[in-house]
Specification:
Blueprint: H1 2-10, H2 17-33, E1 42-47, H3 51-64, E2 71-76, H4 85-97, H5 99-107, H6 111-118, H7 126-131, E3 148-149, H8 152-156, E4 161-164, H9 168-181, E5 190-193, E6 199-201, E7 207-209, H10 211-219, E8 226-230, H11 235-239, E9 244-249, H12 252-262, E10 267-272, H13 275-298, H14 303-324, H15 334-344, H16 347-357, E11 367-368, E12 372-373, H17 375-387, E13 394-395, E14 402-403, H18 410-421
Parallel strand pairs: 1-2, 1-4, 2-3, 4-5, 5-8, 9-10
Antiparallel strand pairs: 6-7, 8-9, 11-12, 13-14
Helix pairs in contact: 2-12, 4-6, 9-10, 13-14, 13-15, 13-16, 13-17, 17-18
Organism: Salix koriyanagi
Keywords: Cytoplasm, NAD, Oxidoreductase
Catalytic activity: sn-glycerol 3-phosphate + NAD(+) = dihydroxyacetone phosphate + NADH + H(+)
């Protein structure tokens, strides 16, 4: 393992001929499985340009973008989002601190607009800077230049693979629009969802709706073509080639070929069949990360306090997952590691810290400038609503009487009081 990591670090700044050949073989294999003819590029589209969605597209562009006749990689984001003056000033500092980025912008004749924005003489837009490799939610970590499309129909109508990078709270709406552009399609696309969160549905019986299920209901694409990818990682660190892993979950047909296609020396992608457990845990980790941030701030980063919180929150997460998933995988290894890294360093943990310190307020909403959507807030409401239903009652271990499951989740109840009831 140590030797492999050293090798990965040594080659992180360039590709050997062997690496290129291996990448092209993986690309050809996936093209063959999808029935792509010579001269017809594999079309991969990222939908949504948050931190993880942008990094995912950039990873693919770095790996496969050189094979232009065989693959086309694009990313869609909504147009019109202005970059405020403070962010433009910070972006200018980031550019000038990175010689490689500075030289790239000068070569592309794109540097002057950042100077003008720094002086307040020009307004930059999020889709504009994304083309140069700057994600609005991750300014400090420049990416490679990306092909950006602001028209959703243009982006997705002929896509072979669609990567869902929009928040779970927006997934249904976006894919309902996408379904209008797929009415005349002969073959269904493959969809990889990166979204973490759930909706609660109470009829005909209380149940969860995960992002992959939202996509299925919105588009009619069969579940065997919809997968979820997640893992114990931070987007910017993955792009900086820190060693990481992830799991792609779904039906047998596509998960193994896609795991192979996505796997890189520093980003190991495994596959797993348990889609629901991974999506539920993906939503829950954001809930409990907010609490972890609060505990860290209120105890002055006490290691003991944070470890006690970790013990209690993972107990609640295991209880909830076993309640909601029919045959949940044992919650160990990658699933708990995903929770661990999110509690350590993620936007939801940051949000909890800032709330506890009084540096932001609930009145600012759950979409924060420079961070994006704090998905844990809506997830708190959804899980609380679902687990409050008496029809899901469980036996209280001490009182020996039926109670709603939320009564056995004191952290979730407290987060609901703080974030929702206020």
């Amino acid at each position: 393992m140590v030797g492999s990591i050293k090798t990965m670090k040594h080659h992180s700044n360039g590709w050997s001929a062997q690496n290129c050949n291996g990448l092209e073989e993986k690309l050809d294999e996936l093209r063959s499985l999808l029935g792509k003819a010579d001269g017809d590029p594999l079309r991969i589209v990222g939908v949504g340009a948050g931190a993880w969605g942008s990094v995912f597209a950039a990873l693919l562009q770095d790996s496969y973008g050189r094979f232009r006749e065989k693959v086309q990689i694009r990313i869609w984001r909504r147009p019109g989002r202005a970059v405020d003056r403070a962010t433009a000033e910070h972006l200018f500092e980031v550019i000038n601190s990175r010689e490689d980025v500075l030289r790239r912008l000068i070569r592309r004749c794109a540097y002057l607009k950042y100077v003008e924005a720094r002086l307040g003489d020009r307004t930059l837009f999020a889709d504009e800077i994304l083309k140069d490799g700057f994600c609005l939610n991750m300014i400090d970590a420049p990416l490679c230049p990306l092909k950006v499309v602001t028209n959703l129909q243009e982006a997705v109508w002929d896509a072979d693979i669609v990567v869902n990078g929009v928040p779970s709270t927006e997934t249904r709406e976006v894919f309902e629009e996408i379904s209008q552009y797929w009415k005349e399609r002969i073959t269904a696309p493959i969809i990889i969802s990166l979204a973490k969160g759930i909706e609660a549905a109470l009829e005909p019986v209380p149940h969860i709706i995960t992002p992959t299920q939202m996509i299925n209901r919105a588009t009619g694409v069969q579940m065997q073509n919809i997968l979820y990818l997640g893992g114990p990682n931070i987007a910017s660190e993955i792009y900086n080639k820190e060693y990481a892993n992830a799991r792609i979950c779904g039906a047998d047909k596509w998960r193994k070929p896609l795991a192979k296609f996505l796997r890189q020396p520093h980003f190991i992608v495994w596959d797993n069949s348990d889609l629901v457990t991974h999506e539920v845990m993906g939503g829950l980790k954001n809930v409990y990360a907010i609490g972890a941030g609060m505990v860290a701030a209120l105890t002055n980063e006490s290691a003991t306090s944070k470890s006690v919180y970790f013990a209690h929150c993972t107990s609640e997460m295991i209880f909830i997952t076993h309640l909601l998933a029919e045959e949940p995988e044992k919650l160990a290894g990658p699933l708990l590691a995903d929770t661990y890294v999110t509690l350590l360093k993620g936007r939801n943990a940051w949000y909890g810290q800032m709330l506890a310190k009084g540096e932001i307020s609930l009145d600012m909403g759950d979409s924060i400038s420079g961070k994006g959507m704090i998905q844990g807030v809506s997830a708190v409401g959804a899980f609380y609503e679902l687990l409050s239903q008496s029809s899901l009652s469980v036996l209280h271990p001490d009182e020996k009487k039926p109670v709603a499951p939320v009564e056995l989740c004191p952290i979730l109840k407290t987060l609901y009081k703080i974030l929702i009831i206020r």
